[in-house]
Amino acid sequence: MKNTVKATFMSALLGLSAGEALAADYKKNPFTLAYDGAISKNEPGKVNIHPVSYKLNGLDIAANVYTPANYDAKKTYPTVVVAHPNGGVKEQVAGLYAQRLAEQGYITITADAAYQGASGGQPRSIDKPAYRIEDIHGMADFISQFAGVDDKRLGLLGICGGGGYSLAAAQTDKRFKSLATVSMFNSGRVRRNGYNDSQMDSIAQRLQQASAARAQEAAGGAVQYSGDANLTDEQIAKLPFELYRQGYEYYWKSHAHPNSTFKYTTSSLIDLMRFDATDHIELIDQPLLMIAGSKADSLYMTQDAFPKASGTSDKEVFIIDGATHIETYWVPRYVDTAIGKLTAFYARTL
User: Fold this and answer.
1) Residues 6 or more apart from 234 whose CB is under 8 A from it?
2) How far apart are CA 102 and CA 100, in angstroms?
3) Which of 267, 255, 257 has the alpha carbon at shortest distance from 224?
């Protein structure tokens, strides 16, 4: 009885009905989508999903394209490219936002990053900014040729790490007429300085480790990885930052997917640690919307980037009251709020 009351209270707190599960099981979805409300079959007259693949710099890229209800290939539609979080795949939050935008009349695409997810590339889990930015350009390349896409009305949405890389991509890729981020994560700053700038005193040491890892790879040795852990509930509870605690819950439990992993090649840090999503951010002259939760411990990254985006006067930070970073990925009322804001933004700018 106590557990039932607790579950009902938690459901009410999260904006869920008491009987609604907190987990999204990819095994129960034919497209292995790991989010609540995911498409389970394509039906005429409804939003449909189209698994596609294409080549990018010689690698096979796996992507999902979502088309709006009553899609007609002879008509034209505004279109949004969606970049997934670090460690995430197209079947998780990026797919949720892509599907929700398709419900609002947009063609959308979200792809697994090269060397990650179901996309090609060896060794696995390379996480270099240049590759992640190229992934975004590649999605634009592919979707611009898709039937019904109006390439004059192409928008970009980046979530978490995909948000930081979207800021970089939009600086120079002017096919994107507007840009939005949700819970933007500046991967270079975090890998360099630590989360909340908590590892400033070990930068030199970590660069030595990254350099040694690259040397080992070049000599034909084993590929070293960072960020990989299979933590117990007790270990998760002791993590110092809420993003990491809730992130493990999301990626390893409630919205787990076998292609999703926290790990990345240690040698990637050579590239990551000299990258910053705000470098040359003044080159963004498109409309910019940055969405973040008021309780997100990653909020500082959005607040730091926004004033530096001096090349556009059409810009806004939108704060979702009460939301943490990870809660913007799946809690229905926070997702609804974000989608409402995004829909209005893209309707105006595309």
Assistant:
1) none
2) 5
3) 267
Side chain identity at residue 113, one-letter code = A
Asked if residue 8 is part of any domain, the answer here is no
Chain segment 129-152, per-residue pLDDT in tens: 999 999 999 999 999 999 999 999
Record the pTM: 0.93
Residue 305 inside a domain? The answer is yes
Question: Residue 335 is encoded by which pair of tokens?
Answer: 């997702």
Q: Per residue in 154-177, is it b (16+ CB within 10 Å) or e — as a string?
A: bbbbbbbbbbbbbbbbbbebebbb
Q: Copy the structure tokens of residue 156.
A: 């970009």
DSSP bridge partners of 25: none
**Residue 259, domain extent:** 23-349
CA atoms within 13 A on the CB side of 58: 2
Round to whole Å and give the CA distance between 119 and 142. 15
Say how many domains are in the chain.
Answer: 1
Confirm whether 5 is domain-assigned: no
> Which residues, 6 or more positions from 144, have their beta carbon under 8 angstroms from its beta carbon?
151, 154, 175
Q: Is 99 within 8 Å of 50 (Cβ atoms)?
A: no
Q: Pairing mode, if any, of strands 59-67 and 48-56?
A: antiparallel
| CATH code at position 332 | 3.40.50.1820
- Give residue-wise pLDDT tens across range 203-233: 999 999 999 999 999 999 999 999 876 788 8
For residue 282, the 8-state DSSP code is: G
